[in-house]
Amino acid sequence: MKLNPNCSEEVFRLTGSLKDIKKQMLNMAEWIEGEYTGTYGDGPIEKLSPQIKTSLNDLRKKIKDAKSLEDLELIVIDFTCNYETFFKAKEGDLLVATCNNYSWGNVEKEDVYGDDENYYTAAGYSSYEKVAEIEGYTILKHCFSDEDYKDGNNPYPRYIFPEKGSKLVFDNTYRANEIKLVIRGKWIYALAGNNLIKINEVGDKKMLNKLKIAACIDDKK
Predict the structure, then answer these.
(1) Is residue 3 situated within a structural domain?
(2) Last residue of one domain, picked from the residues 122, 153, 184
(3) Which of 85, 71, 62, 92 is closest to 11 using CA atoms?
(4) Which residue of 33, 50, 76, 123 has the smallest Cβ count within 10 Å?
(5) What is the pLDDT of residues 26-75, one digit of tens each?
(6) Domain membership flag for residue 96
(7) 52-62 burial string, b = 16+ CB within 10 Å, else e?
(8) What angle do CA 191, 70, 32 make, to 5 degrees?
C-alpha cells in the first residue's frame, strides 16, 4: 500500500554523531508507522499488515546494527509513499532522499535546497535496461539520453557489465527489462526491496572486450 499519492520528492540532512543520526532514523521509522496507524499525519487509519510489520522491524534492526554512515547508506525504505527513501553520507552528515508527503514532525533535520543535491543525486540511483545476454552475461545500458554522455554530463556509466551469476532483480510490474541501480562511491548496487545488493562487474579484460564486440558497443559514441 502507498499512502496519499501524487506527492513530490524532498531531501533533508541529519547531523550530529552517529548515535544522533541513528536516533533520527529510528524516529523516521516511528513516523512511517504512525502514518499507517493514524498516530501521525492524515493518512487512512488501518491495521498494520504482517508485511509492513516485518519491514519496520527489519528497518529498525538495520539502523541499530549500523556501525558507520557507510552502513546506513546501504539501507533503503521501499515502503514510503510514492518514492523509496535512500540515505547518502556527505561531509560527516547523512542526506535523506524521500517523499515530502510526510512532515517528519518528530525528526530533527535540516532542509536541503538548491541544485547541488536533489532527490535523484542524493538517492544515487538510475534506471538501466537489459540490452543483451551473451554467454550467461547480462549487459545493461543506461535508460536515459545518450546526449548527456557526449559532454560528460552524466554521472552514471553508460553501460554496466555485471559478473556472471550476479543477482539482478528486474521490475516486472513496469518494464520487464529495467532495473534500478544505485551508485555508492566506486561500487554499484542493485535495488531489491529494502536491500542494496552489491554488483561486481566483469574483471577479465578479454571477456569484457568480447562482450562489447558481441553487443556492438562503441565506447566512443
Answers:
(1) no
(2) 122
(3) 85
(4) 50
(5) 999 999 999 888 888 776 677 788 998 999 999 999 999 999 999 999 99
(6) yes
(7) beebbeebeeb
(8) 60
